[in-house]
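Postdoc handover notes: sequence design on the structure in folder B. Input tokens:
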């Protein structure tokens, strides 16, 4: 299993580690471990001037983002990961140190890690436990739709939890990294409410994880404090330029939403036909709880196919193949699995 070097938490996409572990050249791998759109927005040639200028806030990025997301109370950050790491420190800076933080589990593990690293008490909760515990929490952190389970929370439920938190001066934080294909479930339109913070990323839907760009939506006072904490020039000029173009390409966005819905259903069918019945999923991946998950992960990796392995619970996440050749390769590899 591959790990990042920064904090020891497991992540997808660690192909260089897989190359060493399984002794398979990088060019021979099919990486389905990340849950990223495998057919990314087609980045045009970047003008030479973009590489030579310092980042500027009035370059059109924020305007393009406000039109795409439908609100103006936003802050561009160097990927939602930057906000995930910074928000607990922002709470510290505001003197909010004694806080009970509920974090959905299983979910993206960087959320719980960031709050623990900042010294907060973290309570891992299943979705079914939230109602019972909400009155004892100061912060609730959710990923919606959830990664890796695919669980989707509706707006009515989220706003009810927000109201209960706010009654005690608490905060609801929602990571919507996989939301772009299901816009009507987003809570961005309510993000001006006190005690509500929403995160979005360009990495998943637009297929540009390497751009390292995302957005935070919250009260303006929170956004200003976070901007002051992050400092100037946190996003490279080329990243800002590319993101501006992608956010304004509505024709591509509409086409890819339809395509992602179809390919996710195709992946679900392929897995079912191979004896791997998904437990949940999104437009970007399929997830299945499987008692012999590590063995399946190992067998696929030995064929040069990298998927995501989870240990709690024992489960697997399959991202979307991008080409017909990749679909055929995955189908053939699944047929060769020795399933118990």
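Designed sequence:
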């Amino acid at each position: 299993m591959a790990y990042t070097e920064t904090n020891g938490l497991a992540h997808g996409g660690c192909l260089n580690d897989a190359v060493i572990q399984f002794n398979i050249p990088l060019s021979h791998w099919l990486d389905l471990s990340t849950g990223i759109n495998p057919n990314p927005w087609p980045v045009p040639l970047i003008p030479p001037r973009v590489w030579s200028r310092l980042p500027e806030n009035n370059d059109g990025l924020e305007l393009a983002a406000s039109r795409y997301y439908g609100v103006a109370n936003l802050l561009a950050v160097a990927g939602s990961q930057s906000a995930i790491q910074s928000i607990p420190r922002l709470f510290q800076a505001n003197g909010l140190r004694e806080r009970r933080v509920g974090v959905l589990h299983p979910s993206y593990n960087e959320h719980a890690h960031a709050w623990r690293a900042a010294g907060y008490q973290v309570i891992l909760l299943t979705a079914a436990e939230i109602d019972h515990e909400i009155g004892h929490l100061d912060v609730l952190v959710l990923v919606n739709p959830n990664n890796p389970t695919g669980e989707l929370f509706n707006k009515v439920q989220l706003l009810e939890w927000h109201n209960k938190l706010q009654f005690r001066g608490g905060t609801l934080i929602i990571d919507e990294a996989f939301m772009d294909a299901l816009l009507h479930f987003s809570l961005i339109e309510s993000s001006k409410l006190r005690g509500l913070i929403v995160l979005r990323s360009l990495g998943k839907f637009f297929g540009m994880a390497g751009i390292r760009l995302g957005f935070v939506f919250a009260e303006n006072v929170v956004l200003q404090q976070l901007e002051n904490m992050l400092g100037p020039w946190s996003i490279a000029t080329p990243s800002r330029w590319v993101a501006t173009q992608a956010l304004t390409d509505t024709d591509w966005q509409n086409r890819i939403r339809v395509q992602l819905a179809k390919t996710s259903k195709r992946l679900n069918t392929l897995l079912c036909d191979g004896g791997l019945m998904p437990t949940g999923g999104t437009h970007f991946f399929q997830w299945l709880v499987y008692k012999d998950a590590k063995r399946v992960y190992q067998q696929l990796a030995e064929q040069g196919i990298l998927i995501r392995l989870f240990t709690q619970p024992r489960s697997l996440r399959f991202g979307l193949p991008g080409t017909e050749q990749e679909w055929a390769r995955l189908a053939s590899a699944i047929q060769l699995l020795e399933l118990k």
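Context for whoever picks this up: The first helix runs from residue 15 to 22. Don't rerun without checking with the PI first.
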